[in-house]
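Let's practice the habit of predicting before peeking. Look at the sequence and jot down your guess about where helices and strands might fall. Then scroll down.
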Amino acid sequence: MESAGFRPTNGRKPNRGAQFAIRDLIRLGLMMAVTLTLAGCERGTEVKALFTDYLQQLATALEVDAPTLASPPNIAAFPEDDARLFDIPDIREGMLDIYALRECQIAALVANRNNQLGKVAAPSQRWLYELKLWRRLEACRHSPVAQRLDDEDRQRLERLTRIKAERMPKASWNALFGSEEWIASFSRASGPLSPDALTRPSDALAALGYLRTMTARQLDPGWQPDSATLEQHLKALREEPLNAQILRSLQLTALRLEEANRLFDAAEAESSCPLADADRLPPLRGQVKDQLRPYLEGLEQFASSWLGAVDALLNVQKVSRQAIDDYRHDWLSLDNPEAPWQRFLNARKTHAQHWQRLIRRCSNNDGV
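Done guessing? Here is the structure:
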C-alpha cells in the first residue's frame, strides 16, 4: 500500500537536480515567509507615528510627562469550525427514489453534488446547490408533475422540499462563516488602517449588501441567486481583511486618545489654563486640524459604514452559534461600551471636550 506522502521510485536514485530544486524552493518559501512577517510588523506605521508625535507634542505643550505608550492587544482569534458552523447531515434517499422524481429535474443536480468535485466544493457553491435544489423542488411541488406522482412519491417531494427549506438558514450561515474570505477578514496578522486607506470600501460594502439580500431572499422563488455575481463579491472581500483592520484601528485610536485624555486630566488638575506658554497652542491646534482630526473623522465614517453593514448582514441570519454571538458582542457590537466602536466614540468625545475646555480657558478662539 502506498503512503499518501510517498511514491515508489522503482529502485532509481533520486535525481540530484531535483533535490537542489526542492532545496531552492524551500529557501524561497522561507524568504517569503520572513518578508511577509516583516511586512506584517510594519503595518500601521504611519498612523502609529501620527499618534506618537501628537502625544509628544501635547505633553510638551501641557508641560506634563509624555506617557509610555501601551501596545493595544490583538483582536481575539475567530472561533474554530466546530464552534462556528452547523453540522448539517445529508438526507439519504435511494437512487430509485430520486429517479421517481426525475421530472423535477433534480437527478443531475444531486449527482453533481455527490461526485468528487461536489464533495470538496467551496461553502459558497454548496449554498448555491442548496438554493438551486430547493427551488427545483418547490417549483415541482406546484407544477403538474406533482399531480402525476403516486402518493408515496408526492409525499417524498413534500418532505424533501420542507426539510430543505428548514435547513436553508443553517446552509446560508455555513456559507458565510465557512468561507475563506470571511474567516480571513478577521486575520490577527493584520494591522490598523493608514490615513490614506480610509476611503469608502465601495466594492466590499456592495459584497456585504449582496450577501444580506441573498440571505434574506434565499427562500423567495421570485429572486434568483447568481454564481458569478456571488463569487465576484467574495473576491472583493478577499482583497483586504477589513474586519480586522477596522477593529485594530479602533483599538489603537481609542487607546491613544485615552492616553491623551489622561495628559489633559493631569494638566487640568494643576491649572485652569494648563498651557504655560500660550504660543504653543496655535501649532498644536494646527497639528490637530491638519493631521489628527482628518484621521479621526475618516476612521469614524469608514468604521460606521462597515460595522453597520456587518451588523445588518448578521441581523438577517435566522440562526446563530453561541461562539459567534460572544465574538460579535465583544468585538463587532455597535452598543457594547467595552467593544472597539463605542470605546473609540467615547474616547473621541472626551478628547474633544478636553480641547474645548483648553481653548475656552486659554484663548478666545473657537473650539477645535
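How did you do? The mean pLDDT is 86.
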